[in-house]
Write a structure and sequence with these properties.
With 249 residues, this protein is an alpha+beta fold. The protein contains three helices and eleven strands, in the order H-H-E-E-E-E-E-E-H-E-E-E-E-E.
């Protein structure tokens, strides 16, 4: 009887170990397959293909916002300010994909894909916490807003529905140049990092751009001395070939 019990116990142990081994092997195979798919660029973002571009996978940005502030050079001449301010374009047209990570009151990540062509624009947003997708399209005369529940409302173009207010891009790209103070900047190759403050808003942006192309690379927004959000830019094109159906609704 003791021998039988021992055999049954050993058999049970072997069976359990076999099951665990199979599970581990299966998990390893899944990881290898997912890794291969990701490297091949087959994982699309939540908006699908259609007439828009796809993102090569959803890669959550780092939460380490405090260590993102760049090293600044000393600004010794007023001419540096003038040249720097004159070098950045106002974007009449652009295409961008970026993440915004909110870290001030609660942590959350949103993904945006935005298009701007003159007065027309298209903004696709995806909230990663709630898995909610929203779409705003402006054809230059009216604005269509599709909320996360699929409800569509149409509004006339107004100050509340400008691209600058709806796109969630850093204030620096659209704000009146007389309305902010350029505090300091740093250079690394063709990249310029600028800290600019908006006294009437109580906020500041630290933006990094390619001075030769005007391409936005990253940004951090402060409220006082607190980081409230930062941007991870996946793609930013100041000139883009737009399809007319992008702005139709």
């Amino acid at each position: 009887m003791k021998k039988l019990k021992k055999i049954l116990f050993n058999n049970g142990s072997l069976t359990f170990l076999s099951i665990v081994s199979l599970i581990l092997v299966f998990a390893l195979v899944c990881l290898i397959v997912l890794s291969a798919i990701h490297r091949a660029g087959l994982i699309e973002n939540p908006f699908g293909a259609g007439d828009t571009q796809t993102t090569q996978g959803i890669l959550l940005p780092s939460v380490d916002a405090e260590n993102r502030e760049p090293h600044y050079d000393e600004i010794n001449h007023e001419e540096n300010f003038k040249k720097l301010l004159a070098s950045f374009p106002y974007y009449e047209e652009l295409y961008a994909e970026f993440y915004i990570t909110y870290v001030y009151e609660a942590y959350n990540v949103e993904f945006y894909r935005v298009y701007k062509n003159g007065e027309r624009y298209r903004i696709e947003s995806y909230d990663m916490q709630s898995n909610r997708i929203e779409l705003i399209v402006c054809d230059g005369e009216s604005v269509s807003v599709t909320d996360a529940d699929g409800k569509v409302d149409v509004y006339p173009v107004s100050e509340n529905f400008t691209f600058a207010k709806q796109a969630s891009l850093p204030t620096f790209l659209f704000y009146e140049k007389s309305g902010y103070s350029l505090i300091k900047y740093g250079t690394e190759g063709s990249d310029y990092s600028i800290r600019c403050e908006y006294p009437d808003l109580g906020t500041a942006d630290v933006v990094t751009l390619d001075v030769n192309t005007g391409v936005l690379k990253s940004a951090i927004t402060y409220l006082g001395e607190k980081v409230i959000m930062f941007y991870d830019v996946m793609e930013f094109e100041p000139h883009y070939a737009f399809g007319e159906d992008l702005f139709a609704f």
